[in-house]
Structure formats: C-alpha cells, structure tokens
Amino acid sequence: MRIALVANPTSGRGRHGGAAHAAITALLTAGHDVIVVQGSSYDESRANATALLEHDGGVDALVVVGGDGTVHLGLDVVATTDVPLGIIAVGTGNDIARHLRLPSRDVAAAARIIDSALRGAGRIARLDAIHATRPDGSPTPDAHTEHTAHTWSLAVVSAGLDAAVNARANTLSWPSGEGRYLRAVLGELAGLAPYGYRLTTDSGTWEGAALLVAAANTRYIGGGMDLAPDADAADGLLDVLRLEPVGRVRLLGLLTRIFSGTHLDDPAVHLERSRTL
Length: 277
Known about the structure:
four-stranded antiparallel β-sheet, globular, alpha/beta, 8 helices
C-alpha cells in the first residue's frame, strides 16, 4: 500500500521524538511504500497531506503519529474521502485512541494494527465526525493557536469552562496527562462564572446559563476523563452535555466523578442526543 505519514515531533511534550522513525521503519518492514509528509507548521503539513491525496495517484491510507491534535489534522485531510486514517498515538492525552481501544505510546503495536487492517485481516471502521462552523458556514476561529481552525473533529467540541480549561492546559508543560487538566481547572476556578447559551438541538431550543456545553462524539477528555461514557462514534448522534451553574466545591466534586463516568446522575448535569447542535 502507498501510505502518507504525518508526524508531530512535539507530541507528548517531545518525549516521543523517535516515534516517527519507528513508525516509518515498521511500515516499510511490513512492505508498504511510505511517503513522509513534511511541514514546518500545522497548516503546511495539512496542506501537503491534502495535496498528496489529490494528486500523483493519491494514497491508500494516511497515518498520523502524534496526539489528539495530530489526529484532527489527519481527519481534516481525509474527512468525506474514502482514504482511511491510521493512528499511532504518542501524545499526552491520547483520548481518541483510548476511545477506539488503540495502543497508546506503543508504535510497533499500532503499526501492526494498521498493517493488518490494510491487508484485509483487520477492520477499517466507518466513524462519525463532527463538522463545526460558524452559523454562516465559515470556519470557526481558533483563538488559542497560530494555525487555521479545522472544521472537522472526531472527539469533543466544548464551549464554556471546559474550553477555557483546555486552552489553559495547552499552555502548561507539567504535569502529564490528566494532571495538566486538573491544574488548569484550579486556575480557572478563580474567575468561575456561568456563560449564556441558546442551544438548538433535534428536540428544540433551550436558552439560559450554564458552566459548560460539550458535544461529544467520543467518550474522553483531558487524558482519560470519562465525560460521555455512552458516546458512540458510529451512531450518527452527538452526546450533548450541559452543566448548570454550581459552586466551586460542587464543581470539584463533579470533576472527580468524571474520572469514573459517574457524574451523569447529578441533577445539574443534562444529557441529550442530537444529530445537530
């Protein structure tokens, strides 16, 4: 097979810098033709990968080596095409790989799964993806990074406290995994205040105050926090979660329950399933 490979050398805060070389070696050893996509930025890597798909005979698969951000780069490239996306997860959180039960920080195991799927001995899954735009259809801005925002997401799109926490967490260099998320939560608690929303779902429109709204296609956020335990990335529906305004102490209690996925029975947490939001 002809495989395009995109790698993020900064995934996992640079702790897995040799992952791309190991992935290339494993796929070449398995007999595949590997084309490494070069790019000095997110946008350039995405554009170069897209060009490979569209010209020179295309590719049989796109493989990404990195964390959830790199997975979304790959998704931006392959969404609405028939090109499968292979994931070699070596990032900090690896929430998408966790949901899909793929290996985390095990390049050899992930490469074997990709090779098996491409040879027909494994499975290539057809998954839902979230398409997020402004109301007029233009791309949503990304205020926290330098690259142009992607319009496709595989995991969770958040608005409110969760988005603010993620933005803060992305600026922190320690600790790893969910520890960065929890540290960011503490940083956001000082200015805790609800946001105003008007939400339109398949069932109608709700308007009011909430601390966060999340549209989940997969289960996890923040390096393993089980935000939407019943989310199914192949059911055609979003799990739309809304958290009513609560105090800081109660909020911290809810956050601890998210790790075990037991927060949904709290009366301040509302969940509905909808094809659109």
